[in-house]
Every structure is written in structure tokens, then in C-alpha cells.
């Protein structure tokens, strides 16, 4: 008992002495300066904003990014992400990071709560605000690796961009008319238009069902028949025969 009573305060004292000694060395300039004090600046700006339970961290490494673009991307996040979350995955991440990254040369990409944006794309396409709507849908999707075909994942993200987008009209983004030779494997907008058609032709819950299956690793090609009574290829053939849809854009 005595030993324990002696040991614990002694251990704390040691930690305290070590900490005091390090502060002493730092005061003498004998330790390396913290990273933030080094000459290169690690970012141009880093802001964090929380609204109604959702937090957006916005890291910008592009000194030329227009403030209005940053504001519009932020507004789009807070307008769109909660809607996508509510419909598809209320347990989605509460905290998301946007990274305007001059080192990234695609349009945008999302990985586990972090969205990379190419500042050159944003500069050249200032009305393409709903790139945010597409990318944050990938966060809501949160599909485990290989749980769904890529054309379904991207088709659902563009479906969400169509349904929840706030600036598609000004961004001149639209679902392309059906053309012979298209396939659902064309992914993105071509798949998204097919999903809208399914919505309007007796299957308004199907996108939710496909999305939930992908997230829970229960997606299989037979799900189309289970949920609609027709195989995917039969559904596509019906779409190709009568592809008209009613479309409206914001
Ligand atoms: Zn995507």
C-alpha cells in the first residue's frame, strides 16, 4: 500500500518536471519551432462553420479563389447536404471538409468526409456550384468498397444533383436526352436520367432501396427484379422504348 501511495504522486511529478523542462528548452530556442510558425504557410485559409448539427470545415489553398465562390459552395453545402442526408442516410457524417486544392487536377473527388476541389475548374465554371451537390452525395452514400457498381454510385450522385441541385440551370447542367445505343453502364447523367424515369414510372422508392442496399452491402444484380418485378435489362428496354420524362431544373 505504501509503495502504491508513493509511486503515483512520484510519477505525476516526473511528468510535470519533464513538461517544465521542455518549456524551459523551448524558451531558450533549443527545440524546433512548431509547424505553424515555419516560413511556408500551410494553407491560405481555414474556416469552420456549424449549422443545425452539420459542420463544414473549408480549407482553401488557392489565394485566387473568388470569395463569392467560396460563399456559394458553403451555402450549397448547408442547403443540400441535410436534404440528401434526411432522405438517404440520416447517420451520415456530421462534419465535412472542403479542400480547394491546387494540387488536385480532376474536377472534384470525395473520400470519407473530405472533398477535394480543383480551383481552376471552379474559376473556369463559376456557375457549376452543384458539383458540391454531387460530391456531398458521395459522403451520404458511404458505400463500402465494391458494394455497388460504379455506374450505380455515380448515377445516384447525379440523380441527387438533379433532384437537390440549386444552380443547375445557370450552370447549364442537364440530363441528356435518351439516344439509341446508350446503356446504364454509361453512368453519371445517363444513369441518373434512367433513375428519374423509374421514379416517374411506378418505382418512386427504388433509388432509396438501391442506395440502402449498396450501403449495407446487400446490393446484388437481382435487386432490380426483387423490387420491380423486372430485370435491369428489361427495365432499360422499357425505358429505351418510351424514354420521355418530365424534367425541371433549379
Ligand atoms: Zn462522383
List descriptors.
single chain; 250 residues; alpha/beta; Zincin-like; 2 domains; five-stranded mixed beta sheet; 48% helix; disordered N terminus; binds zinc ion
Q: Would you give an account of this structure?
A:
The protein is α/β, with parallel strands linked by helices and 250 residues long. The protein folds into 2 domains: 99 residues, Zincin-like; 107 residues, no CATH class. It has 9 helices and 5 strands; from the N terminus they run H-E-E-H-E-E-E-H-H-H-H-H-H-H. A 5-stranded mixed beta sheet has the order 1-2-3-5-4. The N terminus is likely disordered. It binds zinc ion. Zinc ion binds next to helix 4 and helix 5.
Report the span from N to C terminus.
73 Å
Q: Which regions contain 5 or more consecutive residues with pLDDT less than 50? A: 1-39
**How many beta-strand elements?**
5
Main pleated sheet = 5 strands, mixed
Task: Give the helix proportion (percent range).
Answer: 40-55%
Strand content: 5-15%
- The secondary structure category is alpha/beta
Q: For the residues shown, what is the average pLDDT?
A: 87
User: N-to-C SSE series?
Assistant: HEEHEEEHHHHHHH
The structural domain count equals 2
What is the overall silhouette? globular
Radius of gyration, taken over Cα atoms and rounded to an integer in Å: 25 Å
The ligands bound in this entry are: zinc ion
**Total of DSSP H or I helical runs spanning 4+ residues:** 9
Report strand order across the widest sheet: 1-2-3-5-4
Amino acid at each position: 500500500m505504501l509503495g502504491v501511495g508513493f509511486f503515483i504522486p512520484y510519477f505525476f511529478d516526473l511528468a510535470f518536471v519533464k513538461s517544465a523542462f521542455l518549456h524551459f528548452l523551448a524558451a531558450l530556442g533549443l527545440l524546433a519551432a512548431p509547424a505553424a510558425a515555419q516560413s511556408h504557410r500551410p494553407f491560405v485559409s481555414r474556416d469552420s462553420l456549424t449549422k443545425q448539427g452539420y459542420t463544414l470545415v473549408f480549407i482553401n489553398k488557392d489565394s485566387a479563389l473568388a470569395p463569392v465562390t467560396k460563399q456559394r459552395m458553403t451555402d450549397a453545402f448547408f442547403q443540400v447536404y441535410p436534404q440528401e442526408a434526411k432522405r438517404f442516410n440520416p447517420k451520415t457524417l456530421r462534419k465535412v471538409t472542403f479542400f480547394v486544392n491546387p494540387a488536385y487536377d480532376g474536377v472534384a473527388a470525395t473520400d470519407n468526409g473530405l472533398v477535394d476541389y480543383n480551383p481552376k475548374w471552379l474559376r473556369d465554371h463559376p456557375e457549376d456550384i452543384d458539383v458540391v451537390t454531387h460530391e456531398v452525395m458521395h459522403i451520404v452514400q458511404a458505400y463500402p468498397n465494391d458494394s455497388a457498381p460504379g455506374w450505380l454510385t455515380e448515377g445516384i450522385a447525379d440523380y441527387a444533383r438533379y433532384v437537390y441541385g440549386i444552380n443547375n440551370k445557370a450552370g447549364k447542367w442537364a440530363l441528356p436526352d435518351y439516344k439509341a445505343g446508350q446503356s446504364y453502364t454509361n453512368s453519371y447523367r445517363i444513369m441518373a436520367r434512367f433513375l428519374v424515369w423509374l421514379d416517374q414510372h411506378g418505382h418512386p422508392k427504388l433509388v432509396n432501396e438501391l442506395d440502402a442496399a449498396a450501403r449495407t452491402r446487400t446490393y446484388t444484380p437481382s435487386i432490380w427484379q426483387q423490387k420491380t418485378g423486372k430485370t435491369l435489362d428489361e427495365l432499360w428496354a422499357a425505358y429505351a422504348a418510351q424514354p420521355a420524362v418530365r424534367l425541371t431544373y433549379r
